[in-house]
Amino acid sequence: MSTGEAPGRVALITGANRGLGRAVAAELHARGVQIIVTARKESDATAAAAEIGPDVRAHELDVTDAASVEAAAAALGDVDIVVSNAGALFDRGDDPLQVPIDLVERTLAVNVLGAWRVGQAFLPGMVSRGWGRLVFVSSGTGSFHHGLFTGSPAYSLSKAALNGVTCLLAQAVADSGVLVNAVNPGITKTRMMPHAQRDPAEAAVGIANVATLADDGPTGAFLRGGDGARIDW
């Protein structure tokens, strides 16, 4: 996977107050990217930003709230890179026959509609400037090729749908200088996956690579965070 030069670019990361999102923010910051940490609570975003560096900005952004997303887009100016990391898992251990549909709705609201909303808010500016990168943090559980995961059906379905959003948005901005991709970071130790062994800082490297793809990089692809290889949908 070929990455380009990104110093001076501005990157916004959703759900960046902890875990994988915070690690991605720190990794991109180390590469010279100007960082905007966002979280549902401004205080959480501010605390995380201060830990990463004194030059890191913070802003409140709730992906499930249209007004919150619109306000952030209006206030933050030009954003070149968006890493859509905010996600939720409510149905671990459920199965498709018994999972409460309200949990499915809540999951889709964050993982699909929230991510799509963020894309709609920030992609037009990227297109108008002729350069941009939108990265959706997806999951191997959303790959039809490998089989959706019945142990967390709402989450699995949401990531499959997110991969679909990736394809749609990539087609909508084709040949504009903007690349839209989904990335599977692999099983990583976060609040969602507390028993995983992989450190978020390690997984963040692959996501940051996709966020800084060279201009001839792929778009509309599902990429493996470790090496950038394509994953079958």
Automatic annotation (TrEMBL):
A Pfam family annotated for this UniProt entry: adh_short
* Coiled-coil ranges (or none): none
List the PANTHER family hit by this protein, alphabetically. BLL7886 PROTEIN, SHORT-CHAIN DEHYDROGENASES/REDUCTASES FAMILY MEMBER
Q: What family is this protein classified in?
A: Belongs to the short-chain dehydrogenases/reductases (SDR) family.
Q: What is this protein called?
A: SDR family NAD(P)-dependent oxidoreductase
Organism of origin: Amycolatopsis ultiminotia
